[in-house]
Each structure stands twice: as C-alpha cells, then as structure tokens.
C-alpha cells in the first residue's frame, strides 16, 4: 500500500518511536480502507503549549484552553491517541506521548479523558 503524503514524515522519521510509527501506519490503513483521511499531529516531550495549540488548530492546552470533547481517546501505553473532527468532516488524530516530558496540560487532559471513559 502506498502511504498518503500526509504520513510520509511520521512514518519515515527515525526519531519517532517504532510503536508509534506502526500505530500511525495501522490507522492510515484503516482510514484508507474506509475511504477517509485524517490530519496527524504528534505531541512529544518538550513541545510547548504554543507549539501544540498551533499544530492542533485551537487552544487545547496552556492558558484558557477551549472546551474539548474528542470523538475518541485510546491509551496505547506510551502514547495516547485522541481523535476529533475539526471544522466539519476533517478528522484530526493527535498522538500524545505518555511520559514525564509531555506538556502537563495536554497530558493531564488525556489522563482525565481516559479515566472518564473507564468510569
């Protein structure tokens, strides 16, 4: 299967975790089979609220984050996968590193969403 252009960097980037790259490939295959596409954002340790918010497209973290309800969130151990539709039908997948280097606001958001889903 030829990967869509939007996946070329995350899949080819040796700095990305191998498990994350495999997860992104899996999700891409599922989306392609369904005739859908998505935008992928990877949030790694050291990313600041400004960088994260710019990549996601709204204030998801930092000062005065916007209210947010994802379509789904999945806990993959070292990564959270958060999916939402922004501006209509566009699916955005945000993969957030689950570790001590992750920006506190988005990490806490992912943990609270996972805990709420499990309740």
Structural features, described:
The chain has 119 residues and is of the alpha+beta class. It has a domain at 38-118. 37% of the residues lie in helices and 22% in strands. The protein has a 4-stranded mixed beta sheet, with helices on both faces. The protein is globular, with a radius of gyration of 14 Å. The relative contact order is 0.17.
The overall pLDDT, averaged over residues, is: 84
Count of strand segments: 4
Q: Are there runs of 5+ residues with pLDDT below 50, and where?
A: 1-8
Helix content: 25-40%
Which series of helices and strands comes N to C? HHEHEEEH
Shape: globular
What is the topology, as strand order, of the major beta sheet? 1-4-3-2
Q: Roughly how many Å apart are the termini? A: 38 Å
Cα Rg: 14 Å
How large is the count of helical segments?
A: 4
What is the SS-derived class?
alpha+beta
Beta-strand portion reads 15-25%
Biggest sheet, open or closed, and with what strands and sense? 4 strands, mixed
Give a quick set of tags describing it:
alpha+beta; 4 helices; 4 strands; disordered N terminus; four-stranded mixed beta sheet; globular; 37% helix; 119 residues
Quick structural summary:
This protein has 119 residues and is of the alpha+beta class.
Q: Topology, pairings included?
A:
Blueprint lengths: L7 H5 L5 H16 L4 E6 L5 H8 L15 E4 L3 E8 L3 E8 L6 H15 L1
Parallel strand pairs: 1-4
Antiparallel strand pairs: 2-3, 3-4
């Amino acid at each position: 299967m030829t990967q869509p252009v939007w996946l070329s960097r995350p899949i080819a980037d040796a700095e990305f975790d191998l498990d994350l790259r495999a997860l992104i490939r899996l999700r891409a295959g599922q989306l392609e089979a369904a005739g859908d596409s998505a935008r992928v954002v990877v949030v790694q340790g050291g990313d600041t609220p400004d960088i994260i918010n710019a990549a996601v497209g709204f204030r998801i973290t930092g000062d005065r984050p916007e209210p947010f309800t994802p379509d789904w969130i999945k806990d993959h151990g070292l990564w959270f996968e958060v999916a939402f539709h922004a501006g209509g039908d566009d699916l955005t997948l945000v993969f957030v590193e689950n570790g001590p280097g992750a920006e506190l606001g988005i990490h806490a958001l992912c943990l609270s969403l996972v805990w709420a889903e499990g309740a």
